[in-house]
Each structure stands twice: as C-alpha cells, then as structure tokens.
Amino acid sequence: MVVRKILLYDNPILRKKCKPVNAVSNEVKKLINDMANTMYANNGVGLAANQIGELLKVIVVDISEERNELLVFINPKITKKEGSQLGVEACLSVPKFEGEVDRSQKIWVKAKNIFFEDLEMETDGYLAVALQHEIDHLSGILYTDKVPKGKLKATEDHKSPKDI
User: Fold this and answer.
1) So what's the pLDDT on residue 126?
2) What is the CATH classification number for the domain harbouring 55?
3) Does 134 qualify as catalytic in the annotation?
4) pLDDT in tens, 117-158
5) 159 within a domain of the structure (yes/no)
6) Which of 54, 66, 134, 156 is catalytic?
7) Rounded Cα distance, 87 and 102, in Å
C-alpha cells in the first residue's frame, strides 16, 4: 500500500492546470490506487491527482461512512449546474483550516471510469460539493479561493497561512 505525500497550499503545482488522460495505462491504474490509499490514510473524502504532484485529470471520491464506495473520475467535466448551497469545506492540502463556500446544489458530470468507459452522473448534496471541490483542483483552484476574504477559519489553535 503506497501512501503519497500530499502537497500543501503553497506548492505551485496545485495552481497548474491538469492534462487529460488518453488511456488507462498501468501507470494511471497505479496513480488511482495511490490516490485512494492516500485519501483513506488521511481521512479525506476526495483527492485530485495534482494534490500528490501528478498533473493529470484524475480524481477519487468516497463520501461513505464505511469508506468502501470509491468513485474514480478520469477527465471529469461538469456539464450542467443548478441551485446553490452554502457549506463548510476543508482540504487535505490546506490542513487545519475550513471555510464556507457557495457551490451548486445539483450538478451533472461527464467523465471516464477506471476502464476508460463513458460515465455520466447527476448528483446533489454532499457528493456534488465533493465533486466540485475536486474538479476545481484540476484547474488549479483551491476552495480557499472561494471563501470570502478574512473568513477562512483555523480548526485548531493555528495561525492563518499568509498566502491563502
């Protein structure tokens, strides 16, 4: 089981746009496996490839309580959005902080699955938030970019990062 290092908010790789995946090679399968292991080992609900230094359009998500419903999205794209929901978000790349973000309530996503087959999903609520958060990462966007200035909160006795 490989658990990779998660890049933190000040790493410039997190601000770069990821490149599309053209096929599910053995390297991509290993990346997905490493991403899942890293996400679970850090008690996350989602992880984008660039958070572990890989500039590829791959995300993994698991919002289940049992931590046994891994979803893999390759080249994900939100095709439609509806409504609005305000909620508190956090991120493995911005440890010990959280902030309130306005996201779409319902989204439609197109992607490829782990077998590189077409995948279409309509979802709402917490899964919609998690997907929007991770898909933003692929464009170099952190949730902190969407938190109103001065509203990022420390979850512990911690000073606010200067660059966020």
Assistant:
1) 96
2) 3.90.45.10
3) yes
4) 999 999 999 999 999 999 999 999 999 999 998 899 998 765
5) no
6) 134
7) 7
